[in-house]
Amino acid sequence: MSEERHHHHLFHHRQEEEKPSEEVVYSETAYNPSGDDYTSGYTETAVAESASDEFERYEKEEKHHKHKEHLGEMGALAAGAFALYEKHEAKKDPEHAHKHKIEEEIAAAVGVGSGGYAFHEHHEKKDAKKEAEEASGQKHHHHHLF
Questions:
Q1: Model pTM?
Q2: Cross-strand bridge partners of residue 45
Q3: Total number of domains in the chain
Q4: Could you tell me if 107 and 83 are in contact, meaning their C-beta atoms sit under 8 angstroms apart?
Q5: Does residue 22 form part of some domain?
Q6: CB-facing half-sphere around the CA of 76: CA atoms within 13 A
Q7: How far, in Å, are 71, 79, 130 from residue 62 at the CA level?
Q8: Which of 63, 80, 81, 59 is nearest to 121 (CA)?
Q9: What is the per-residue pLDDT across 96-137, written as a single tens digit (0 to 9) for each?
Q10: First-to-last CA distance in the chain?
């Protein structure tokens, strides 16, 4: 991924994290500041997301990245198996060996790409896990000098 796209991805990922999640609660009666009476109607009140909701959100994100990591791993495995098959076919079928070697190379490239994707998702999963631990207060970072 180019540095610009990577920065763009990180920017949007951080931007999503910094948005305070709010829940809208409706109230049927509200105080009317122009008079001393209460007026009927609906008003919106924003309520900040609780720590447990935030923890659950990060847990769900961690699970999502774990699933995508496994998909990347399966893609790498399948592409690797297909590359080996094409290598075998190139030896077995010398008349079409060039075609099989090209397909082998393509499958190998797909395998490397899938492996890279799995590696990326592994690190996204680790970040989500760390955020979940911090949201729940489970992990305290102590910086020891010695």
A1: 0.60
A2: 25
A3: 1
A4: yes
A5: no
A6: 14
A7: 14, 26, 9
A8: 63
A9: 999 999 999 999 999 999 999 999 999 999 999 998 888 877
A10: 39
Q: What is the C-alpha separation between 140 and 72, in angstroms, rounded?
A: 32
The answer to the question of residue 82 being in a domain is yes
3-state secondary structure of 116: helix
- Is 90 within the bounds of a domain? yes
**Residue 56 within any structural domain of the chain:** no
3-state secondary structure 41-105: EEEEEEEECCHHHHHHHHHHHHHHHHHHHHHHHHHHHHHHHHHHHHHHHHHHCHHHHHHHHHHHH
Judge whether 75 and 67 are in contact, CB under 8 Å: no
Per the structure, the complete domain to which residue 105 belongs is given by 65-134
Closest listed residue to residue 134, CA positions, set 122, 145, 126: 126
Would you say residue 142 has pLDDT above 90? no
Residue entry with tokens 């001393």: 36
